[in-house]
């Protein structure tokens, strides 16, 4: 039974108000993540300390400080302009509070989410915020309620339903009912795919980005150990030259020092990528990602244990081809869906599906690009001949 509903429309200022209302730990999360890349120079710092190259160490620390200041300026400028740049779903949206789930409907899609999968409900002075993930939320401006009392009642009811859902374990969302209510059967189905959850895939994509040719892989411990062998040998040679032979101003010494520093910097960057991947993997193991999707010419429907959703192509950003998956971005760099290519083993069908989905996004965004689909015999993704 539906209990309450509100129809509203967001502006960038609404999103900015919510972001500025986040705890400092959440607001600085991306900032800290960006700054950590500067820690990749730690092998160089160790080398300079071992060789007593204090001037070079001071220069290195100076570069790190300057880079940290520049990153800080860029970060705070981004926060200052977020009221103008924040992406919002255009047009009116209707949020409904049902007994068993939270429902959002809009011209560009809709979703239903079980109450026990709603992380938080926040009642702010000017907004009611219902979080669907740690950093994603429905932001309802209170100006769209008839009276302040209605806004307070809406926030109170949402919090009550969330608490009740956690205590009693809300039932799973009915996919068939959602498909019928959203009239998805009227759309042309391109493909229906189901796959096993793969947090490692999302962790790699978030850490290293798209890897089209399969060469930019996550560094392994064994690979890092092998990568460190040559720098260790060169470091021992530098120690002998400096402390045993007494050569520390010779051209050969500094050429060797430059070579060793380069190897250690590369090692530091690889070590940073490995550590960030492991941290992101822990995060992704706690995130529920879609493992079943219906691809239509009009949009994508997804199903998880948290709920169901449908998004039209016009609200999604782009489709990108990775060596391991077809990746669909919500707003760069946020991943909406990563489809493992193991779900569609035939390479020709993988390529054809990628081209078809890319064509759908291009058409939805009115991009004037010529899309040529691969000619694959009996390919269900191929456009009809004209």
TrEMBL record:
Electron transport among keywords: no
Protein name: YcxB-like C-terminal domain-containing protein
Keywords annotated in UniProt: Membrane, Transmembrane, Transmembrane helix
Superkingdom, natural source: Bacteria
InterPro entries reported in the protein's UniProt record: YcxB-like_C
Residues covered by the YcxB-like C-terminal domain: 99-156, 295-353
Chain coiled-coil ranges: none
TM segment ranges: 33-49, 55-76, 224-245, 251-269
């Amino acid at each position: 039974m539906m209990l309450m509903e509100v129809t509203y429309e967001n502006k960038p200022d609404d999103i900015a108000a919510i972001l500025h209302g986040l705890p400092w730990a959440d607001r600085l999360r991306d900032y800290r993540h960006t700054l950590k890349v500067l820690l990749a120079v730690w092998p160089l710092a160790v080398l300079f300390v071992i060789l007593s190259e204090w001037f070079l160490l001071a220069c290195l620390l100076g570069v790190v400080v300057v880079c940290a200041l520049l990153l800080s300026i860029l970060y705070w400028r981004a926060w200052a302009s977020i009221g103008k740049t924040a992406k919002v779903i255009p047009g009116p949206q209707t949020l409904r509070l049902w007994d068993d789930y939270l429902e959002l409907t809009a011209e560009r899609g809709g979703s239903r989410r079980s109450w026990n999968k709603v992380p938080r409900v926040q009642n702010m002075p000017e907004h009611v915020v219902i979080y669907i993930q740690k950093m994603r939320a429905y932001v309802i401006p209170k100006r769209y309620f008839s009276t302040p009392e209605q806004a307070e009642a809406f926030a109170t009811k949402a919090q009550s339903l969330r608490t009740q859902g956690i205590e009693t374990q809300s039932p799973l969302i009915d996919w068939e009912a959602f498909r019928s209510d959203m009239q998805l059967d009227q759309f042309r189905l391109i493909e229906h795919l189901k796959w096993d959850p793969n947090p490692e895939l999302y962790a790699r994509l978030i850490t290293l980005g798209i890897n089209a040719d399969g060469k930019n892989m996550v560094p392994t411990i064994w690979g890092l150990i092998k990568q460190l062998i040559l720098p260790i040998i060169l470091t021992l040679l530098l120690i002998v030259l400096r402390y045993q032979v007494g050569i520390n101003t010779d051209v050969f010494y500094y050429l060797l020092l430059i070579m060793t520093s380069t190897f250690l910097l590369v090692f530091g960057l690889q070590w940073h990528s490995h550590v960030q991947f492991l941290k992101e993997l822990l995060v992704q193991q706690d995130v529920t990602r879609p493992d079943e999707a219906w691809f239509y010419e009009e949009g994508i429907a997804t199903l998880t244990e948290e709920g169901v959703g449908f998004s039209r192509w016009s609200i999604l950003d782009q489709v990108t081809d990775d060596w391991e998956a077809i990746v669909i971005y919500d707003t760069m760099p946020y991943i909406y869906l990563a489809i493992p290519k193991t779900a569609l083993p035939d390479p020709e069908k993988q390529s054809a599906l990628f081209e078809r989905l890319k064509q759908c996004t291009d058409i939805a965004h009115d991009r004037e690009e010529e899309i040529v689909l691969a000619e694959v015999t009996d390919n269900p993704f191929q456009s009809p001949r004209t």
